[in-house]
Specification:
This protein is of the alpha/beta class. The chain has six helices and five strands, in the order αβαβαααβββα. It has a five-stranded mixed sheet, with helices on both faces. It comes from Alloscardovia macacae.
Amino acid sequence: MSAAEDLLDLCRARGMKICCAESLTGGLLADAFVSVPGASDTYRGSVNTYAVDSKASILGVSSEWLAAHGPVNSFTAESMASGALHLFGCDGEGLNEERSGIALSTTGVAGPGPDGDIPAGTVFLGCALSDGSVRTRECHFSGGRAEVRRKAVEAALDLGLSALRDSRS
């Protein structure tokens, strides 16, 4: 069984939904979920905010923060995950009080070269739960662009699994 299947099964058992906000993975995280038969009962969707300004306009990441610090950091990953949780109605608030969920996010530098002073392979992952808990993970992967993106997806799924296993939701 794949990590995506495990995460879907765990969410299904808890009555939770899954959503994503992706940057460097460009839809690969979404693909990991939709490749699993029956995912539609648990997986809500993904938004690909590859452009820096789309992280602000779609997910609500602070444009001031992005201008000052750029998109490759833990705060951006955290904000992207929280924004996705709200965007897809998995935050358990307002009209969605009964819909709890988890959101995963990816941002980083896939390569082949660095982005300014940030080396290729630098990735920040975010995970937000509807209970208000948020965690991030910083990763440094080696390999080419495709390998960095694949490793980022694997690490994001692992982050989600560990967050749910640690959670009481």
